[in-house]
User: Fold this.
Amino acid sequence: MNIKKLVKVVTYGTLAAVSTVTIAAETDVEALSKRLEMMQKEMDELKHQIQMSASKKDVQAVRQEVAVAREWRQPDTLIHMAGYADVGYADTESKDGSFNVGTFAPIFHYQYRDLVMLESELELEVGDDGETEINLEYLTIDLILNDYVTLVGGKFLSPIGQFRQNIHPSWINKLASAPPGFGHDGAAPVSDVGFQLRGGFPIAGIRTNYAIFISNGPELKAEMEEEEGEIEFELDGVEAEGFGTDSDGEKTFGGRFGIIPFSGFELGFSAASGKVTVTSIEDGDSELLDGEAARDYDVIGADFSWQWNAFNLRGEYVKTEVGDDNGAGTAASAGADWETWYTQASYQIPKTKLELVTRYTDFDSPHDSRDQEQWAFGINYLFTNNVIGKLSYEFNDALNRDIDQDRLLIQMAYGF
Assistant:
């Protein structure tokens, strides 16, 4: 289409309209009718000339552009990038305060129609020595079977409880730290490598969600101690961090079931079970692991979340238990358990962007020196729904001086 002629048509029409008003004010009805009739003929003639000037090539180009536009509106493949990042400042009771770059975690999604999606999260952190550490937080291929079931395979965040799989990103977590026992080597599993079925369905009008999984088992560490010339071993910790190989061949089964009886409230129950053997000894000889027998490994958990207007109350409980070694193992004979729970309340002050939050956590381990009780208080400023500034203070009580340190935390988190 000739753009110059089109502009001329619009300009001519505008001037004609102005002229029409002027004529209507200065002439009689008969003169106005003749003038309008003449203008209509001229416009019809010009329109015909523009239509004739458009070649077949021009028409074909327009049709092709329209077809491409329709294709991009309904593509077979969708590519999406999300993630979060945070920076901050930490001032511990007996140490000098330091600025820090917490985490940069890009999340990638590649979806083909409504059939399959690949999702992955990388975690980049700057250590105390300035070195950058890169970890694969999760990577799964999700096969969408129907509206109620998705088959997930790969490395995925543990579905035990809520914190690890849904709340741990810094722009979602309302405090600048994780509750004790919900981090690495704590009571709550971090991630798994295997397969899971997850989704949701209604029961008598009540919404539910679920996750059922099978994965490689965790690794059990023991610590060697020498007392009065005798060597003893104690269970040191359970590492449930999604190992890519199963060193003892034992698998873990588990899942979570959530109920949403009414809007704003969810209640969840979690459990996992399997076998685990001692696979490493800190400061010890690995040959002592020969003949280690498999132990019972069980995890139970419960969580709830209640949102009422600007007030949110949530809590979570997780216990990991490792049974006794009744075989010929030499690393440690007695079992052990790790237990943690927290309750958190937050309230956004009406007509402001300020939010108040408090959290209490109690973490118990087989070693008294690692037990920790914590009160955390914070005030947040919500710049937008996905940008939050946090000012938090933690009161920590523990036998271990390294973790018995009150601290001030400042954090800026951005979810994108």
